[in-house]
Amino acid sequence: MKEHFYFGERVEGYDMPVLNEREARAGAGLLLLPAMVSFMTSYLTHNFIFTQIFVTVFMIDFFIRIFINPNYAPSLIIGRFFVQNQTPEYVGARPKRFAWSIGFVLSIIMFLIIVVFEIMTPVKIAICLLCIAFLFAETAFGICLGCILYSKLQTTGPLYCPGNICQVKTKEKIQQFSKLQMISLVLFFTGVFVLSYGMHQNKNYVENSMAIQSMKCETGKCGNSM
User: Fold this and answer.
1) What's the pTM?
2) Which residues have C-beta within 8 Å of that of residue 200, sequence separation ≥ 6?
3) Which of 27, 181, 215, 222 lies at 20 to 30 Å from 136 by C-alpha?
4) Which residue intervals of 142-218 are DSSP H helices?
5) Strand ranges in the chain using DSSP code E only, listed in sequence order
């Protein structure tokens, strides 16, 4: 049984069990899409069936990752299929287990609130957004927030965090920001704000014009009426 129930792989050159970060990141991405869809569906239609299904699947997936073997977790199996031709990026299994444990605890809370008791509370919205934030950070930026928290709590031994974020190092030139980059970013978001504000004002102007025109019609003063 031990050959199936274990956490992390032994790889030469690493003195602790490791996992393939590329698979973990792919698995996070595969969970992120249905998480966002289920959240928006529930928020807009007040129909929680899709969210109930997703929370249940999410909880089972993380249970398998933590207590059985990450190799048998559905999201990670599918993730491995898509990244199997990419060079593995090994990260410490312990920080990942800690991070996934946070997700598992959150999924249990969500399961009780949404599936078992069906309680209407803002807490479930907050937890949903927190899970989406964790998944998005790992998928988009390769940042494992739970791993970072683990590195703050664990002060001894190698950690092998994703992207070597746990190690203090000098940034390469390609990783640094210039003043021109920051100015262009500020100008971009300023332009987006001005454009959005202008479109909003124009929409209000059109709606007010239509309302005034409608009022005139009601009093017989619109069109060709004499």
Assistant:
1) 0.77
2) none
3) 181
4) 145-153, 179-218
5) 18-20, 90-92
Closest CA to 89 of 186, 21, 10, 14: 21
SS3 assignment, position 19: strand
Instruction: Write down the residue that tokens 């909880």 correspond to.
Output: 59
pLDDT tens digits, one per residue of 12-21: 888 888 999 9
Residue type, 78: I
Q: Looking at the domain assignment, is residue 57 inside a domain?
A: yes
Number of domains in the chain: 2
Q: Which helix (H) or strand (E) holds 54?
A: helix 49-63
Which of 74, 97, 92 minimizes the C-alpha distance to 26?
A: 74
Residue 123: band (very low, low, confident or very high) from pLDDT cuts 50, 70, 90 = confident
Tokens 């309680």 belong to: 119
165 & 180 share domain: no
Same domain membership, residue 159 and residue 111: yes
Give the Cα separation of 94 and 85 in Å (integer).
Answer: 25
- Based on the fold, state whether residues 159 and 174 are members of the same structural domain: no
Work out the angle between the directed axes of helices 49-63 and 93-110 (0-180°, nearest 10): 150
DSSP state for residue 172 in the 8-state scheme: P
Summarised one tens digit per residue, pLDDT across range 142-155 is: 888 888 888 888 76
Residue 68 to residue 7: CA distance in whole angstroms: 8
Residue 9, domain member (yes or no): no
